[in-house]
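Incident review: delayed structure delivery

Summary: a single-chain prediction request sat in the queue longer than the usual turnaround. Root cause was a stuck worker, restarted by the on-call engineer. No data loss occurred. The affected request and its eventual output are reproduced below so the record is complete for anyone auditing the incident later.

Affected input:
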Amino acid sequence: MIKIYDTSLRDGTQREGISYSTEDKLNITRKLAETGIDYIEGGWPGSNPKDIEYFARVQELDLPNSKIAAFGSTRHANISPAEDKNLQAIIDSGADVATIVGKSWVLHVEEALNTSLEENLAMIESSVRYLKEQGMEVFFDAEHFFAGYQDSADYALKVLQAAERGGADALVLCDTNGGTMPSRLREIIKEVKQEVSCSLGIHAHNDCELAVANTLVAVEEGVSQVQGTINGYGERCGNANLSSIIPNLQLKYDYQVVSPEELKKLTATSRYVSEAANLNPPAQAPYVGESAFAHKGGIHVSAILKNSRTYEHQDPELVGNKRRVLVSELSGKSNLIYKAEELGIELDADNHNLKAVLNKIKKLEHEGYYFEGAEASLKLLLEKARGDYEKLFELEGIRILTDKKEAINPHSESTIKVLVEGKKVHTAAEGVGPVNALDKALRKALVNFYPEISNIYLVNYKVRVLNGKDGTAARVRVLIESSNGDESWGTVGVSSNIIEASWQALVDSIQHGIKIARENKEVKK
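Output delivered after worker restart:
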């Protein structure tokens, strides 16, 4: 049986830019438990106040199938385990599991610990035994094991044997520098199994892009505990990615590492951890990425509509993901039909406007439009093809003035004239910039006709220069993400004038947002 050990809350936080609050760590713990993780490493209780608070509060969580592990190191040299503050902090944490790290590389023992090889072995054995005597389940992380083994196999094995004598429940072989090749890792594990009888674990880092591969090779060789992090977050190039390892073990190797229901939560857990870390979810990540089951080429889409196995190695729903069909200059009719259906628009292959719409999309993308991140604009385009597009207002004119004085931030004012329901509306608004002023003026002009607009707000605004060779006259693409609090949508505009590009995206955003509000209102009735 394979046990999954997650160290996102400790090793994962060593990634540059990640810093979880205690509340974040508790929420992630819940998500990990819901995804079926066997062991959740909460942190190093002796190292900082945040981890101390975490271990105090995690006791209040209901985690029937997950165990919380406290991390620490072996005792310091030349003192007893009972005198060591780090070991005492592990015991005081209230965790059921202790994971302690010890040096298995001669280089580290002599130059980092600055102690003798014999004392290091004594530190490992006595620390493990002491924690076992406190009634804890104890895992020993043999740091730099593979590098240490290749430098001095005899001593690296003595380290494992010392932990085994102390009563360790598992010996975790660590590829700490992430430099071991899979073939060599396989050979070493085979040799280790001849010298120890304790259960083995694997803790791989990704410095050679091999952490997942090395972990799977270790499992093939009989390792029963797999350590890693969600999304592979970790120091330098990261840790072994559990978001890939778990489905690989379950779906490719047929190990029952989590229940089918828990596996379906993997994508949501992956994205939740990304959000908590304030990082964009990894779009191209296998299994859980937004692009993992996305199809763009027309031939591909035509094939998957007939049989998804033609271009998908697995059913995306098994891991809680979904198939996506993108519309671009590479698209065929199949893409449009599938996307229209996904967007709730009936559009069959015999629609006389279908080819015209497809050609228009390809022309627009050639000009710089990008519909993969702007599905609301695409939906409006498809509605126009069906002839059921309702134009909510018509622009008669815009004027934008921007004042800039020395040492004072620029100030913008937008005047707008629109025709709404046969009535002319002429109004103005001020903003911190020209686009902000334009947005405010348009909303002010429309709000009395469409009060739903009050609930629509901007989530993200991106500008991309499409061809820098034209300098400040270059065409730009504006992508706007909007929301009503319950759902969000993207729109796009392209022009050599940033105001015009912003206007295009803004109009689509308002059109789509008002339509959503009306549809939701009808549903409630």
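Verification: The chain has a mean pLDDT of 89.
Action items: add queue-age alerting; document worker restart procedure.
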